[in-house]
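Q: Phage capsid protein, please. Structure only.
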Amino acid sequence: MPTSLAEAKLNAQDDVDVVVIDEFRKSSDILDRMQFDNVVSPTGGDTLTYGYRRLITQRDAAFRAINSEYTPNEVQTQRYTVDLAPLGGSFRVDRVVARIGPAASGAVTLNIQQLIKASRAKFADAVINGDTATDANGFNGLSKILTGSSTEYLPLSNGVATGYVDWTTITDKASALAAQKHIDNWLAAMDERPDVIYGNQKTLNLFKVIAQWTDQIDKSTDAFGRPVTAYNGIPLTDLGSKAGSSADVIGLVTRDPDAGGAGGNITGLGDLYAVRYGLDGFHGASVGGGSPLLQTWLPEFTSAGAVKTGEVELGPVAPVLKATKAAAVFRNIKSA
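A: Structure for Phage capsid protein:
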């Protein structure tokens, strides 16, 4: 049965687990939206593998004449596997330090809060930038998965000779409408309307300017009371910084967007990711058999030993893109 962090919270037996799950949800748009298909079990050895078939093409339908057959037309799928991995960390607290502060567990609380923050950031970073070629314990993220796919929107392939769109020069409605054309063509490559668009703050700020000029901006609040700005009803969300760093999860980069043409390297290029969540789109995979999605181990100070260990762990989990058209990336947006 698929589950989410919101549903996992209902089954948490420990008040600390409830708080931790709430903090994961509040600090991570990805984890708040993601459903987890909790069916994975060991198939031998110590590897947890989720196998699935990704829908590569969509089929059509047609009328037929009486006394004639339909022309066969099968959808195309491709087999993929992903290995689940646990994500979290541990900390150590001296029993003396744990008693110092406004609350007896001040040091423990601080460490748990910071561990949640780092784990949330690491998961978001891996969902976008993950690459098993550089981290064998992780998984491939959307940037690698979508490279070369039908939903990777490259300005160079869509009538822009320079290979990038410059949103820093948008100062009137005409230029905003020209930018909107690329945005809508990018989103049209998906199978359905996305649930969210991810980016960095600079790129999203310019996106909001376009939305204002084109009368496509919406403002509301989410379930936690935080303000949400949307483009035509699609929330625009900044994934923040990487774990242990001030660098953005979806950072500005320097690229040669015209593929070796006369333009050379261009600085300040950002990407946008549109995602449709669901078990037939983009979702998570987790361990079956009633295994909890997230666990907390508090330091145990009642036994001998001066320094105790605490841990918070999500998973084992991994993201799954069931349909290529359930996610899309817009590359090479000049944002600075």
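A: Brief note, in case it's useful. The chain has a mean pLDDT of 83.
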